[in-house]
Design a protein that fits this description.
The protein has about 900 residues and is of the alpha/beta class. The chain folds into five domains: about 260 residues, Sandwich (Jelly Rolls); about 130 residues, no CATH class; about 80 residues, Alpha-Beta Plaits, CATH 3.30.70; about 260 residues, Peptidase S8/S53 domain (Rossmann fold); about 50 residues, no CATH class. It is about 30% helix and about 20% strand. Strand 16, helix 9 and strand 17 form a beta-alpha-beta unit. Helix 18 crosses helix 19. The longest helix has 24 residues. The two termini are about 15 Å apart.
């Protein structure tokens, strides 16, 4: 049996160069040729919309009752991203030519709220729109002054109804962004808004109000009267939209045990990480009493975080404390974590006081030193491709500010809805068809949008956890799900689906991102609806027979994941929380996506019949390609349900002789390429066979989120790749070569044909087609030389085009290496990391980008020896050939953990 060993830090000195060519090329910037008649319906639609805009504009003016500077807000839905670097450079032109300043951007920046900052320029917009609407149906708009109007899908005036959004009493308002052009009016409205809110409090029409602590982009109102709410939405243009966040209803506990006691006891270890349980309170029931700390926070009127009327928070706390050991049947359990109660709800279906939740997490960290948190309370589900919520934004800001990590449940389908679906037989209601049935497949009872993750599970800096149907009971089977290793029927999926139309069009491959999926990982959560498929969890024991209950949900999966993080920190207390995240994800293993194959084939057949009148398998090559591009793959849908999979606990916590986890914690500057060498042991060139190493790596870093800018929500690009070391003497030179596509280094490997093309280019005697061929040949040389294999792999994330690419702050990449690969690179594998910051940012983030010179990141590498060389020891050899350091600073603690497991 291979020995359990501590993970290693890689401390090899890096090289770097301050260079990052982000140009690559430009996007097509001209209107495509279309039949002029095809614009007729578009013109009619815009004509009707603009007429309604004029009416709504007048109505809003008439409904204003307060004397304050007006900011006219217009919503425009675009057929293309609102940006520069694409057709018409809309961002620049809409401001410079039409006086429209973007104050909120949604739907991957295809839906934009504009403030009219210059009425005279806006009249130019009116005139061009009028010209387009009334232009001849026999004349193309291409190369006309009004051609830019063809980029608009729809237009409307932002009304009080849009702002109020069917909310009342307890309301969260999202505010528009202030811009240079409207800052005076914005500040005046904000000051008057605060004055008005104070007045409403004095009059008894409002209980309380509060702005968020960051950029004051979120306003929370508690107990506002209907008339007062109408006054606010009718007068204050800086209010973008209201939301009313209720927690999702938790299904009733099912008590089918006739036990006389809990039958187990939990005791703390000498060292326990503390987990903050953000829930409805954690009751100090006898088995948990010793691991629940006396300190607590309660933002509800009870002011007692240990008072709970529902078992939810207590169940969550028990699983966070002892993890999977809870289901072992042992009477004496050793805690991995102590519990700190942060009570945010009394009844489980109440309103979530978002701003106080965020402040409570902040206080728990600053005053009580808590770094890990669990949030198993969800709110409403996300619409497809919906922008990050204010709740997720505030949690992301908090995690960016501090070294903390929040485990967030992905959310469950409503229990009553699941009952209704099961009572109404339909293939579209069965597993797994219910997860994904686009519009033409909706049933009267089900729309797959209701299987999308719940707010705030879209949070980027934290970890979202989905549920497997596993219930830790060997003698039972799942009820609704197909297999215990698969996502549970109720577990929600990623809400980003780049196959869904936005404003009538699809995102191009350059404007989508394969790394933007949730959940991050999955853990067991049990299944529905048969109680035998659920998980056995604690009860309160109030009536003498309710010591245990059956339950299931992502609420149970999240604390099981948080427990793994606590185990990790108990062994490696000094690693950053982004390192915890990267190690968790890097240890995860995913199940096959084959359970989705039949559903995807049927989906392709439906589209093939609609478009070509025959099944997919009977289509020709080009026809098949067009259908495949419109249908999500089984692999991608599985990842939208399972993320990277379930963490392997042993791999997460320990290295072995032949499997080693190596952690890189480092920093990188904007517009920099950094290279870190991993020296491959010489013994891997010995022995028979070819297969040698398999490396899987996960990169995590914290993003400072941009409010109201969907594409730029994460303004930071960091990505990595595995490459050939190429030059042996200078890592700075290596970084320079890898950062420069046209570096002179590559010219020594050019062919005679390429040298001739270079001469002709210097003499300006190269056609456009020849220049393309020259660039292609140069790219082949570069990729061959930089590649570990015959060519270089894709990067963990593509940056292009940086202005329109939504970015991820969590990426994974892998490589397998043969004996020949190791020979090619001279036993030196280069890990290259690059960094860039977006430029299209709001004012506050522009200042952040200016003053923030370094960005920390964590890169976890799992390195596995595949050579089968007898007596080989990868762990020792990696230490011998590299500058390393064991991650734990207390080997005695590691030994104690190993003894406890033995």
């Amino acid at each position: 049996m291979s020995q359990k060993l501590p993970h290693l830090y890689l401390r090899n000195i890096p090289g770097h160069v301050q260079k990052f060519d982000k140009s690559r090329g430009i996007e097509k910037n001209e209107l495509e040729d279309k039949d002029p008649e095809s614009y007729r319906r578009h013109k009619e639609k815009l004509d009707a919309s603009y007429s309604k805009l004029i009416q709504d504009k007048e109505a809003r003016r008439e409904n204003k009752t307060l004397d304050l500077a007006t900011i006219e807000i217009v919503e425009i839905k675009f057929l293309i991203p609102f940006s520069d670097g694409v057709l018409f450079d809309t961002k620049t032109r809409f401001l410079a030519q039409f006086g429209l300043s973007a104050v909120l951007q949604k739907d991957f920046n295809r839906t934009v709220l504009f403030a009219v900052e210059n009425q005279e320029k806006f009249r130019v917009f009116d005139q061009l729109l009028y010209q387009y609407i009334n232009s001849s149906h026999q004349k193309t708009p291409k190369e006309t002054p009004y051609a830019i109007m063809t980029t608009i899908y729809d237009i409307k005036y932002h009304t009080a109804g849009d702002i109020k959004n069917y909310c009342n009493t307890n309301v969260i308002f999202e505010l528009i962004n202030s811009t240079t052009q409207i800052i005076h009016q914005y500040d005046q409205q904000k000051q008057l808004l605060i004055r008005k809110l104070e007045e409403l409090k004095d009059q008894g029409n409002l209980i309380d109000f509060k702005f968020d602590l960051y950029n004051a982009k979120v306003l929370q109102l508690n107990g506002i009267e209907e008339g007062a709410l109408e006054t606010l939405v009718n007068n204050f243009d800086i209010l973008a939209q209201a939301h009313s966040l209720r927690s999702t209803v938790v299904r009733p506990d099912q008590y089918n045990f006739q036990e006389l006691s809990w039958g187990f006891n939990v005791t703390p270890a000498d060292r326990n990480t503390i987990i903050g349980i953000i829930d409805n309170g954690v009751r100090k029931i006898d088995p948990l009493r010793s691991v629940i700390v006396d300190d607590q926070l309660d933002i509800t009127p009870t002011r007692n975080g240990h008072h709970a009327v529902h078992t939810h928070g207590t169940v969550v706390a028990s699983l966070a404390s002892v993890g999977e050991a809870f289901f072992s049947g042992q009477r004496e359990l050793r805690a991995d974590a102590k519990i700190f109660s942060i009570k945010i709800l009394e009844s489980m279906d109440g309103y979530i006081d978002v701003l106080n939740v965020v402040e409570a997490i902040r206080e728990a960290h600053l005053k009580h030193g808590i770094r890990l948190f669990n949030l198993s309370v969800c709110t409403k589900g996300k619409q497809y491709n919906e922008s990050p919520s204010h709740f997720a934004y505030l949690l992301d800001k908090l995690t960016y500010e501090f070294d903390i990590l929040i485990f967030i449940a992905a959310g469950n389908m409503p229990y009553d809805d699941i009952n209704s679906l099961q009572a109404t037989p339909s293939k579209r209601h069965d597993y797994p068809y219910h997860f994904y049935n686009p519009p033409e497949d909706y049933t009267e009872y089900h729309n797959c949008v209701h299987t999308n993750i719940c707010t705030p599970a879209e949070s980027m800096n934290n970890i979202t956890v989905g549920a497997l149907a596993e219930n830790y009971r060997a003698d039972t089977d799942p009820h609704l799900s197909l297999d215990k290793n698969l996502p549970a029927y109720y577990s929600r999926k990623n809400h980003y689906d780049f196959k869904q139309p936005i404003n009538g069009g699809l995102l191009s491959i350059n404007h989508s991102n394969k790394n933007l999926f949730k959940p991050d990982i999955v853990m067991p959560g049990g299944d529905l609806l048969d109680s035998n498929s659920g998980m056995q969890v604690v009860g309160f024991g109030d009536v003498g027979t309710d010591f245990y209950a059956f339950d299931s949900g992502t609420s149970l999966a999240a604390p099981l994941a948080a427990n793994l993080a606590a185990k990790l920190l108990n062994i490696y207390p000094d690693i950053t929380l982004q390192s915890v995240k990267s190690l968790l994800i890097n240890s995860a293993e995913s199940y096959s996506s084959s359970y989705l194959d039949e559903m995807i084939v049927e989906r392709k057949d439906v589209l093939a019949q609609d478009k070509f009148g025959k099944d997919f398998k009977k289509l020709r090559g080009g026809e098949k390609t067009s259908i495949s591009k419109a249908v999500i793959s089984a692999k991608d849908l599985h990842q939208n349900l399972s993320g990277y999979g379930k963490p392997n606990v042993e791999r997460l916590l320990y290295s072995k002789n032949d499997t080693v986890s190596v952690l890189i914690e480092n920093i990188i500057q904007p517009d920099q390429h950094k290279v870190i060498l991993l020296h491959i042991p010489e013994y891997l060139l010995e022995g028979d066979g070819s297969q040698r190493l398999a490396i899987k790596a996960t990169l995590c870093f914290k993003a400072n989120p941009a409010w109201g800018n969907h594409v730029d929500y994460n303004p930071l690009h960091i990505s990595f790749n595995f490459v050939n070391s190429i030059v042996k003497d200078s890592l700075d030179e290596l970084a320079d070569i890898l950062a420069d596509r046209d570096h002179v280094y590559y010219e020594r490997y050019w062919t005679d044909e390429m040298l001739e093309l270079q001469k002709r280019k210097n003499n300006r005697d190269l056609s456009e087609e020849q220049n393309k061929e020259f660039n292609r040949l140069k790219g082949e040389v570069r990729k061959k030389k930089a590649g570990v294999k015959s060519t270089i792999q894709e990067w963990s994330e593509d940056f292009f085009p940086l202005v329109n690419k939504p970015l991820s702050n969590r990426q994974q990449h892998s490589i397998t290496m043969s004996k020949d690969d190791i020979k090619k690179i001279g036993n030196k594998l280069a890990v290259v990391i690059r960094c860039a910051v977006k430029e299209n940012l709001p004012v506050d983030l522009k200042e952040w980008a200016r003053i923030t010179k370094e960005h920390p990141f964590s890169l976890a590498l799992f390195i596995e020896d595949k050579s089968k060389i007898e007596g080989a020891n990868l762990y020792d050899n990696l230490q011998a050939y590299n500058q390393t350091e064991v991650v734990t600073n207390n080997l005695a603690d590691l030994d104690q953990d190993l003894e406890a497991e033995a």
